[in-house]
Write a structure and sequence with these properties.
single chain; alpha/beta; Rossmann fold; GMP Synthetase, Chain A, domain 3; nine-stranded mixed beta sheet; 25 strands; about 30% helix
């Protein structure tokens, strides 16, 4: 019985090696091509001394090398650590140290980011470079070129054993609401169960061809887009990044495409571009949106302009995909539908933890084979997140309507989702608090027509000092954090509202700033 997505992919490669799999910048890899590269990469890692269970970070943008490394790490019996390409030194230092990453696969820009962190990352022993590095690359680290590693692996005869269902496959870093991000441990069986459920629900087959422009370091692009393609034996056109003009032209010109997955911001950009240029996409059988709430207005606008009814779904790093609007049946705007096959979802009272009736709000809990095994080296956080019956507390608030469709109404915690990316207020607050012109700060999310939510910083300057320039604070964050985490709005106040225990009352700030 198949125990992993990797095994399912290798089975396709054995039976249909000449079948096209991945097109990238006009070059196509077949299933057989990719399998040979994956096996060579895996043997190259083992040849260089990596043992099963070792953590390997992928810190690079979309490319065939990403796909090869992702599967190759797993075939070597090692664990993939996903790293957002927008992350800067604060995030990198924490994630790579917490996971005790041994090897990082990256490019020139990524290697340059690691230079100041060398002393903070004693576990990091090597870089695999997908392109020539600049002079700023850390000289104290052994660096091997990606192609050279493939050559080493191709010449090696080191034995490889397929991972088992209970083996750790991926560490996906996420945090609930406070503190540093935690590594969600996804086992091979979690990934396989979820992709089976998704492909069944969405009628995904080997005949499908996906336009994949979502970042592969993100759950949506990797564990839905790529995993579904590999599992079904389908194919995908991969873009390095989303560019609205290029994507719209591809959707117009390539009649072989059957699916497109995006976040609401992407759909908004495509709509703007179509209205500006008059270019319209061709007919696809499935358009999917996720990673942030899709407004009913955008849903209807896309239907009017493109003739497409978007299928909205709900997922998260710890569980991959949880619920989906129906493939066959009503796709209800503003809702995320029903649990995928073999999975469960419910809404419970936040105090009693008992299920609530339709129309009543509560916290969403999920259960099933797709749910992660717990947080990396954080048994306390794992225990807090599950009840005795195995229900996982998502931290999202929602309600079921009378027909059973799930609607997400907010977040029990303070996570901000901007443009499909998670922004954790405390992380931004901690960076802003290091600026000499900031005495106190509260970061929150406010509705934004383009990004879903915008990051807003409310700042109290030091007593007796003038407020700094707002743009200076934005740049302060941009230099230390991923660009999408920087405030889009800075508000200066004399004091922050607090309750009797001294906790900042962000709901009062939110009401004041709307």
């Amino acid at each position: 019985m198949t125990a992993s997505l990797l095994e399912a992919f290798l089975d396709h490669a054995r039976t249909t090696p000449e079948r096209p799999l991945l097109t990238f910048e006009r070059a196509t890899l077949t299933y057989g091509d990719l399998a040979r590269h994956v096996t060579a990469f895996a043997r190259g890692l083992r040849q260089r001394g990596l043992s099963p269970g070792a953590r390997v970070a992928l810190f690079l943008e979309n490319s065939p090398q990403f796909v090869v490394a992702y599967l190759g790490v797993q075939q070597a019996g090692c664990v993939v650590v996903l790293v957002n390409t927008a992350y800067r030194q604060v995030e990198l230092a924490h994630i790579l140290a917490d996971a005790e990453v041994h090897t990082c696969v990256t490019g020139a820009a990524g290697a340059a980011e690691l230079v100041p962190l060398r002393e903070q990352l004693p576990s990091l022993q090597a870089l695999v470079a997908v392109e020539p590095l600049t002079a700023e690359a850390p000289s104290s680290l052994p660096v091997v070129a990606f192609d050279a590693l493939l050559e080493e692996g191709a010449a090696s005869s080191v034995a490889l054993t397929l991972p088992g269902a209970e083996d750790l496959a991926v560490l996906g870093y996420t945090s609930g609401t406070t503190g540093r991000s935690k590594g969600a441990m996804l086992l091979h069986r979690n990934l396989l169960a979820n992709v089976r459920a998704v492909t069944e629900a969405w009628r995904w087959t080997s005949a499908d061809r996906l336009l994949l422009t979502l970042p592969l370091f993100h759950t949506h692009g990797l564990m839905v887009g790529l995993h579904g393609t590999l599992y079904t034996g389908g194919s995908a056109e991969l873009h390095r990044r989303f560019v609205a003009t290029d994507v719209l032209a591809t959707l117009r010109d390539d009649a072989t495409l059957t699916m497109f997955f995006g976040v609401p911001t992407m759909y908004g950009r495509l709509l703007e571009e179509a209205r500006r240029t008059g270019v319209k996409p061709g007919r696809l059988r499935l358009w999917v949106s996720g990673s942030a709430p899709l407004s009913p207005q955008l849903f209807h606008d896309i239907e009017t302009e493109f003739g497409a009814r978007i299928l909205e779904r709900y997922g998260m790093t710890e569980t991959v995909m949880n619920t989906t609007n129906p493939h066959d049946g009503e796709r209800r705007p503003g809702t995320v539908g029903f649990p995928f096959p073999g999975q469960e979802a419910r809404v419970v009272d936040v105090r009693t933890r008992q299920p609530v009736a339709a129309g009543e709000a509560g916290e969403i809990e999920v259960r099933g084979p797709h749910v992660f095994a717990g947080y990396w080296r954080r048994p306390d956080a794992t225990t807090e997140s599950f009840d005795a019956q195995g229900w996982f507390r998502t931290g999202d608030l929602g309600e079921h309507d009378a027909d059973g469709y799930l609607r997400i109404t907010g977040r029990a915690r303070e996570l901000i989702i901007s443009g499909g990316f998670n922004v954790y207020p405390r992380e931004v607050e901690e960076v802003l608090a290091t600026h000499p012109g900031v005495a106190e700060v509260a970061v929150l999310g406010l509705p934004d027509a383009d990004y879903g939510e915008q990051v807003v910083a409310v700042v109290v300057p030091p007593v007796g000092q003038p407020a700094p320039e707002a743009q200076a604070l934005v740049e302060w964050c941009r230099d230390r954090l991923a660009s999408f985490k920087k405030p889009r709005r800075v508000v200066f106040v004399d004091s922050l509202p607090r309750n009797a225990l001294g906790k900042v009352q962000k709901h009062l700030l939110r009401a004041r700033l709307r």
